[in-house]
Amino acid sequence: MPNKFRDDDIVHIRDEVYLVSGSNTNWVVVKEGDSATLIDSGYPADYERLLASLATLGLHQGAVNALLVTHAHNDHIGAAERMRALHDIPVLMHQEEVPHARRDFLQQVSAGQVLTQALHPGVLPWAFHALRAGGTYHVPVLNPRPFPTPGSLDLPGAPTPIHTPGHTLGHCAYHLPGSGILVSGDALVTGHPTSRITGPQLLPDMFHANRDRALTSLVALGGIDADTILPGHGPAHYGSVKEAAAQALQRAEPDAVFGRAAGSV
Hints:
25% of the residues lie in helices and 20% in strands. It has helices at residues 47-56, 74-77, 80-87, 98-102, 111-116, 123-133, 211-221, 241-251; strands at residues 10-14, 17-21, 26-32, 35-39, 64-68, 91-93, 145-146, 160-163, 172-176, 181-185, 228-231, 237-238. It has a seven-stranded mixed β-sheet. The protein has a five-stranded mixed β-sheet with strand order 8-9-10-11-12, with no helix packed on it.
């Protein structure tokens, strides 16, 4: 994937928090002096772009204190094992996501399930892109770690994990309380190549392991005191999380989504 960044590919949100656009997916960098927290890492093909984004922000890859995982789909952990193995960066996640990251099992939409949705706008272009970017590669994290303590983590930005199951069993969002930011992963997004709408929304049904739990997690996110959302897909959203979650819930009607199947993006 190209490593050259457009002006809007690395967005300075506030303080030292940055939203970076990879190939159809995002990651977040939280700087604190010469160290940083990295949240997610893009597709396998995004590895060099990830390193380039750190360099653009004045960071060496060794300056990353930890890589926090929202969930273990290939477009979010594509560079995780390389960062762990090559740069000794711990890869942290919810305890229920640890076996998924090890690939003890895989919650991922199958090729057959994607084909059943092939006539929906955007599905085939997204699928071809996902294949090129490594969406079906075997990329286990060999030593994924659960969060060491409950509550805020002792990392740049003091991120607080919020268990938001549904997209996967151990999906987590991260609240950055000092910055008023919610890093929502795929529990709440603002766009996707397979979606026909923009703004706060739930991903189409075929991408969720358990849609009912995903809806419940949206309700839980509505209680977070933050005014900016950095999603796994789509641009940053400025406005209360409560209102955004309510909008996403309202949009999550049967006629606004398609396909009921466990999956990943």
